[in-house]
Amino acid sequence: MEMIGLYPTWFEPGLGSGWIVGLIATIHVLFSHTSVGAAIFFAFLANYAHRHQRPDLLEFIRRYGLFLLVFSYVLGSITGPGIWYSTTVASPRGISALIHSFVWMWATEWVFFVIEVVGVYMLVYLANRLNARTHLKVSVIFGLASYTTMLVIVGILSFMMWPGQAGWYETGGVLNAFYGPNTFAQLGMRSAFMFTMTAVVGGIVAARFQDAAFKKDVARKLAWLGICSAVAGAAMFQWYLNTLPETAALVLANRLPAWFQPALLGILGATVAYFAMTLLQPRTLVAGGAAAMTLAVLVFGLWPEEVARESIRKPWVAGQYVYSNQVVGRDVPGMGVRSEIPTIEAHGFLKTMVFLPDHQRTITDSNRVEAGRVLALATCSNCHSLSATGMRPLRNYFSASNSTSEIADYLQAALSTGNTLYMPQIPFKDDEALALASFIATLNLPSAPAATQAKAQAATSTIKE
Ligand code: HEC
């Protein structure tokens, strides 16, 4: 029989594998965006310094560069491979899809990353030994190499939302996958906000300057950079929203946590206010304040943004053909990829999953709950935590008053048909649905669904139907 190549599931009970990836990735975004923005800013400052005979600005570049070596390059180089490790186990087929389209893009990115790392070392350790022209050249090469790494990664990230060109499904081809409206809008948005982060983090360095006049000068430059980039970023964000698939817009409108929009607006307003303050009163720029602001941007800006980008991609993880639960849900003739849904519909999951002990392939009275757990791990746990904490706990959507057969009916009605916008089509055989329902019933279900009212009602009303 034809099998489907699902890998064993990485199950993380506390948070859910998706949130582990999200945490590592969000921290990485802070480091990587700060350093790319700083690289471009350094090129600008170096140019300015040489034109206006301002060697003191070169000292700022050196110190900020040194700070970045630890802050961005060490921690960024830990979280970067961290993303590879965590996504490879959390979403092996999602990563595989990306590698199949973009392996040379990534190779390109690594080349430029090496240039970038050499560049930052040169800027810091050769700062006082290079002549002015060479120093300027190094900073321009550093800036361009950094930005190229961002350019390449953004194309890959936007492919995760959807391929650049709709024709890609038929034709394949890396450029069709890479370039699309979403790529450019996302590049614009990230390019703007990376300068905001550069300005926020730069405050930690600038605050330590003793010379009041110099500190004031740098503080004002950072403040203007921060204000302009935050405002530009907000505009780019609107553009970005307009380049999303229709389903994403619906999820955005209906399914994001209530705190999402206020958090983003709040942090944007707070950032602009903060920079207005340091612009008018450079004295108020202190290292602790700048560090707190950096943390706030991470928690209230980047985390919601990354969570949202991940949510609105649902039910897909990559290219709108690999579902978040790793099943290939669509034909892609251009890549020689076939949907696995027909195979699963014909034979069920338990018969077609490769990594499964034989005694779990057939459901009996004695292994029903165990088989249900296998199904929950393979088909739900990528998006729903199976414990009480973490990402969208599965138990929150059901109540103790639901009978096993009611739960099974819901699973068949909503999931086997692919009736929801944000969940994959998950075609269960009748006995599989019952097994999964039996497992769900063991999750110590709350007496009333704990998910927010509207969602809970949606769940129970579907169950009751
Ligand atoms: C691609 C990710 C994904 C997968 C896989 C997934 N879900 Fe969901 N599920 C969601 C999202 C997103 C929501 C909406 C949650 C919200 O708004 O709180 C949801 C909501 C639900 C709800 C609430 C009712 C509803 O229709 O909105 C139930 C019940 C549910 N999921 C059960 C399951 C079960 C059982 C599985 C595995 C067989 C599963 N889900 C697999 C993403 C997923």
From TrEMBL:
Matches recorded under SUPFAM superfamilies: Cytochrome c (SSF46626)
Organism expressing this protein natively: Paenacidovorax caeni
Superkingdom to which the source organism belongs: Bacteria
GO molecular function, one term: metal ion binding
Keywords: Heme, Iron, Membrane, Metal-binding, Transmembrane, Transmembrane helix
Protein's name according to its UniProt entry: Cytochrome c domain-containing protein
Residue intervals of the Cytochrome c domain: 367-444
InterPro entries the record matches: Cyt_c-like_dom, Cyt_c-like_dom_sf
TM spans (from-to): 20-45, 66-84, 104-126, 138-162, 192-210, 222-239, 259-277, 284-303
